[in-house]
């Protein structure tokens, strides 16, 4: 493939960052507004948990099928369609009651799924020698988007009188802007001839142990992230904090996640073996989850900051591993699809399961214990995923 020049690469990075910014706000704004949504539409904790579970199910299904679309349409056109779907879903969710809420959420999940899978493939294709830096850059921008949405959702809904519909619907604006920006770049993204068919790639990758270890690692880190995204504000409110404070704590977790998503991929990208990094992250995660079980100690902001850093870093690392373990861009797209598909199907069980556990036990500490168990399983999978090697 002919190399693109430096100005074109810069513009491509800008376009990638515009897309990356929109891969979290449409979902991270739900947690702080969950109580308002539940009261307005008379939804239980389990049904509210489904608002986070639905996108994850979409991630699981669509991620697997993404390479089928890219082999026919190319990465550029596939991403363009994804941005259309994402923008439509955000608008639909805010306008049409319960049906619109869940249907729009599903469309949002579909649009985001394509972006999740294809940005690592674009990185491998255009920046193979700078994978750590580029992954750090776009994953941190994703964290910025999540942090902003988590922090301003409650003020927009209450202080400005927009309600939960307006506070969630506003994210159609940056999604549409990303659509416009990408529409100018899509013609520069060349469609490559696939080395193998979709079925052949799926068969080969699904039979590789490393793929399963990466998928489980991706799934468990995503499960923890989306549980925190969905339930952290509610946990803090039930501990006696205000909904505004809880929203800002979620925003704080996303803000420290920015640091994690910058530092960890840069560090990991300079190493052939990422296992030590994985051990450190898991230990920090367990400490912070245990700390949240004791809010009376007055260290909530500390634990929230740590868990945010860990989850941001773990997410960036999971994406970087896809690039590092791939031999070329085609393999990166295929690997990204299957790893994220299996991973997000695992993650989809998290918010709903945690909601059910709370409904039954009426105690969030049981949920935190479950997340500590997830951390230990993540350590086991990470020991395989972090070991040097390529597919």
TrEMBL record:
Sorted UniProt keywords? Membrane, Transmembrane, Transmembrane helix
Query: Where is the secretion signal located?
Result: none
* Membrane-spanning intervals of the chain: 44-66, 78-96, 102-123, 135-156, 168-186, 210-233, 245-269, 276-294, 300-323, 335-358, 364-381
* GO MF, any single term: transmembrane transporter activity
Pfam hit, one: MFS_1
Domain Major facilitator superfamily (MFS) profile positions: 10-391
Record's protein name: MFS transporter
Q: Which organism is it from?
A: Subsaximicrobium wynnwilliamsii
